[in-house]
Design brief:
6 helices, 206 residues, five-stranded antiparallel beta sheet, four-stranded antiparallel beta sheet, single chain, alpha+beta, 21% strand
Length: 206
């Protein structure tokens, strides 16, 4: 991880980036300058293969993906891949007050806007309270949208499962019917008499 400091980011670039992030849409340029100067918000670059957050760790930071792509793994299993600029991740840890629920690893070089809630504690009042109110309001909206999207996806998956079960039942019914036909055909092929005649012929002495 490499922190992109003010000397690398041309003057005003960070503020411009922050203004484009929906999470910070409620903040003025002056508010964003205060967050940046306090160290609460900064830019970081992660190289391919580098861990951004690790499952089980407790931290007060969350991230906004600005560029690149990252893989989310929980319990050793791939959950999703994030490539959409503006995607927020890592917020659950400080909201729920528990360790990270997944590991996020950069698939390709990634630039992230990092929000360190630990630094927010040192903001002067009432700026601190105002920031928390606005950031949690925004996060609530984002999580609600995420849940709506996830629930819609769940509904589509359940519908697909139902359709495949119905298709499977139809296939099983067709195959069972075909098996019955074959069994009837097999039963109709009564060869007992022919077999008896053949035995008699083979046993006869000439």
């Amino acid at each position: 991880m490499r922190r992109i400091d003010a000397s690398e980011a041309a003057a005003g670039i960070l503020r411009t980036v922050m203004l484009k992030v929906p999470l910070l849409a409620d903040f003025s340029a002056q508010d964003l300058d205060l967050l940046h100067s306090s160290g609460a918000v900064f830019l970081c670059r992660y190289e391919a293969g580098e861990t951004v957050v690790e499952e089980g760790n407790y931290e007060k930071t969350f991230f906004v993906l600005l560029r690149g792509g990252a893989r989310v793994v929980r319990g050793g299993k791939l959950v999703t891949e994030m490539t959409e600029p503006g995607t927020i991740f890592g917020e659950m840890s400080f909201i729920l007050g528990k360790g990270r629920t997944a590991t996020v690893t950069a698939m390709i070089p990634c630039d992230c806007l990092v929000v360190d809630m630990g630094y927010v504690d040192f903001l002067p009042s009432p700026e601190r309270e105002d920031f928390l109110i606005r950031i949690f309001r925004r996060l609530a909206t984002i999580v609600t949208e995420r849940l709506g999207s996830a629930n819609a996806r769940k509904a589509r998956i359940l519908q697909a499962i139902r359709e495949r079960r119905e298709a499977l039942r139809e296939v099983v019914a067709r195959e069972n019917a075909a098996i019955k036909v074959l069994r009837r055909e097999l039963e109709a092929l009564n060869t007992e008499d022919d077999e008896a005649v053949l035995r008699q012929l083979l046993d006869r002495r000439y």
